[in-house]
Amino acid sequence: MEPFNLPTLDGLHLIAGLCEGAFLGADSLAGFPSLKTLPYTAQLGYHHVNVFQSDSRNKSMVLHINNVHEGRKTSDIANELISKRTFLDWPFLQEGKVVAVSDHLFKHELIKIAGVGETVVATPHGSDALREWQRKSQGIEERYSKKTGVITGPIEVLLHIRPLKGLKRTEDGALIKDYEGKDKEREQAVQMSVSGVSSEDPRYLEKDAPPLHEDFPKGSKVFFLGDHAYGVAAQVSDTTDTSLSVVLAFFPSERAETQKLTDVVLQRKDNRYHPAYQVAQMLGLTGLGVSKITSSFMVLTADGSKVNVGLSIKFEAKSMKVLDYSRRGERGWEFSDKAVQLLKDYKAKFPQIFKVLDQRGDAMTRAADVFRDSNPDASVKAVKAWLNTQGVRDFEPVSLFSDHLPKEIVTQLEQLEDSFRASKTPANIKKAIVKGIPRQAVLKPAHAVYRLQNQRFELGDRVIMVQDTGGVPLTAKGVVIGLNSNSMEVVWDNAFLSGSTLSGRCSDYRGSTVTFNSCLNLTNPQFIASMNPQRQQQPPAEPFKPRFGPHPVVTPRGGRPPQGGFRPAPSVNGVPVHILANPNRAPPPARNANGSYGGVVSGNKPEPEPVDPSTSRTNALRDSLNEGFPNRGRGTNGRGRPPQNPNTRGGFVPNAHRREGSNTDRPPQVPVNNGRGRGNFMPNGDRGGRGFAPRGFRGRGRGRGAGAPPAIYSGTATISADT
Fold first, then answer.
1. How many CB atoms lie within 10 A of CB 641?
2. Strands across the sheet with 273-275, in order?
3. Bigger pLDDT: 115 or 709?
């Protein structure tokens, strides 16, 4: 071991600071936030910023944004910004594309008009859209002010922005930016958007199509997308400036194999499903009885052990169902013919259990209450043994929001795949050379994530792995046996090291869960490339988002698109279904005309409504006669919010507690009495109940904490008619 000696400066000296040429402020590299990307001013003052569920009592550094678009017409802003890129979430900038501009009257969008082309059209808001616009603009202003201490000023124009999702590869090999859809559209105040940055993010730079010899070098592994050999593995043999030559290697029997696998899935019987109330009528039970027996129904034996005598085909709390037996629809649980027949057999075999299903209460049912014979525990064991013979304990619970093939079908598919594999030998491989094909007729494994977007799948589809990353080997083939919202479950022809059993639904090392863009659908080809450029098949445009299970039928108000599983009710004769509002319900109170939250944006509580002094004494006497003291109630003293100053901007009060004739600031020492009493004793002020000063009427009986002594009235308390 040799000692390490620290290097010496040898006459040099250290320089404290950044290196020369460092990018700072608005010139910072992509990913580094900076406040200087927008013009602003800063001031220290009391603003009651709320970050950790409570208002700040000390001073905060508050930023005031200078609106560079102030005074401009909304139409001019729309013509300038629509279809242009912008950056939102200042100062942590994220790129997006402006698709619309709106104010409190109109929404400006780019619309294609026949004979004119694309032009910006202003559409007036409806009543619901107007309320929604006001809600969003006020929410943005409040969030910036209360959460971040940024005063945006009045928000008069909103930008509708679709965030950048990433890059997508076009048919000619170029990389272009891909933006989110309408469902992920966001609103941003025009003064909070950044039109451009000095440093671009190199990860999202658009690129032109590279030459064929660079993108597809000789010997590259690709997949052919032609009509007659769709999805066949190939190898590039030669390239020119405009076309490629590839060598295909395939088994002639592969197309027939796909059809045989599809036939096995099609033989699956379609079960009819019945709502729970119809099942109750079929069995002569109540809805409660059906709910109990189809879930877990525990029975307590004499030795204190719990035995589940329910069928366990629905799991409400876990959001799970049993394949081919139960599912949850829009109006509740539904049960198949197989489940109904099982319930009928169960009731005929053990009618005693069905007689106690309607008992209510939290107490667990005892075996002696169900079987009134000499040995009820033996009867419970007989029930458990009978359920095992019916295969109840082997049921497959799966998520409500997924669809799967039953285990017996998966077993048949595996056996068929094994027979295919046994019949294939290297001598059966056929090779063919295809020349003069365009670049869009082949799929490179690295391009799959870009090109296979929005591909659709169904249960039983034959797929081939086309990505060279992940645990599944390249060119492996399998069958889709399960569909989830963002992935699918596949049982593969061959076992591999990272494979699984998919929770016991397939053989060892044969199953895996993969994404939709990692496989090519061979049963339903959707990216067939024609040799004629004018006959190219258009790739699917709608994203594939399978969703199963219950869908709430109530749509959000304000014309917003359904989200989180919401979908509209089916139309009747082409007319959409609308939910009528209650005409007797009073409309919600209108907010201030200037779009503010009545002081909430600035951290202040709304001003109390004026109190009629003629009713104050009447209410105080009423509360005192009801054993409630008027000055001992449950309110709060408000902790002395500073009064609104009409000369301040956005309610910001820089020196709200400054003494007259003093040049120094001081924090608030004594709470301001705003007449809302729960809190400690306030000098020269009464502790009001839920009313307002003076002498807080409407006190609710016995209040909390110590306070001023109760009011004492001398003489006889009388309330005249004019009081």
1. 22
2. 273-275, 332-336, 326-329
3. 115
Q: What's at 235, amino acid-wise?
A: Q
User: Which residues lie below 8 Å from residue 553, measured CB to CB, with a gap of 6+?
Assistant: 330, 566, 567, 568, 569
Place of tokens 């619970």: 397
Q: Are 56 and 47 in contact (CB under 8 A)?
A: yes
Can you list the alpha helix ranges (DSSP code H) found in 112-251? 127-148, 212-215
CB atoms within 10 A of CB 435: 11
pTM for this one?
0.62
Chain segment 342-374, per-residue pLDDT in tens: 999 999 999 888 988 888 877 788 888 888 888
Tell whether the model's pLDDT for residue 638 goes beyond 50.
Answer: no
Helices 337-349, 287-294: axis angle to 10 degrees equals: 90
d(CA 35, CA 651): 22
Q: Please report, rounded to a whole number, the percentage of residues in the chain having pLDDT higher than 70.
A: 73
CB neighbours of 659 closer than 8 A, spacing ≥ 6? 666
Candidates 211, 212, 224, 220; CA nearest to 531 is 224
Whether the Cβ atoms of residue 360 and residue 291 lie closer than 8 Å to each other: no
Rounded to 10 deg, the angle between the 337-349 and 276-283 helix axes is 30
What's the start-to-end Cα distance of the chain, in Å? 99
pLDDT of residue 690: 45
Is 80 exceeded by the pLDDT of residue 149? yes
DSSP E strands: which ranges in 337-487? 365-366, 397-399, 403-404, 430-437, 442-443, 462-465, 477-483
pLDDT tens readout for residues 506-564:
999 999 999 999 999 999 999 888 766 555 556 666 667 676 666 544 444 444 544 44
Reported as a pLDDT band with limits 50, 70 and 90, residue 486 is: confident
Domain with CATH 2.30.30.750 in the chain: 215-264+405-535
When computed from its CA atoms, the radius of gyration of the chain, rounded to whole angstroms, is 36
Question: Taking the mean position of all CA atoms in its chain, how far away is CA 3?
Answer: 58
CB neighbours (10 Å) of residue 483? 22
Q: Give bridge partners of residue 162 from the DSSP assignment.
A: 97
Distance CA 718, CA 723 (A): 9
Evaluate the omega torsion of the peptide bond into residue 576 and state whether it is cis, within 30 degrees of 0. no
Fold for 30-204, please state it.
paz domain (2.170.260)
Measured between alpha carbons, how far is 620 from 86 in angstroms, rounded to an integer? 59
- How far, CA to CA in Å, does 271 sit from each of 251, 321, 323, 327? 37, 15, 10, 11
Contact (CB, 8 A) for 194 and 38: yes
Report the 10 Å Cβ neighbour count for 228.
11
Between the alpha carbon of residue 575 and those of residues 125, 567, 570, the distances in Å are: 22, 16, 9
Query: What does the pLDDT average to over 421-444?
Result: 88
Class of domain 215-264+405-535: mainly beta
Instruction: Please give the backbone phi and psi of residue 567, each rounded to the nearest 5 degrees, phi first.
Output: -145, 150
- Position 436 confidence tier, pLDDT thresholds 50, 70, 90: confident
What are the backbone dihedrals phi and psi of residue 519, each rounded to the nearest 5 degrees, phi first? -125, 155
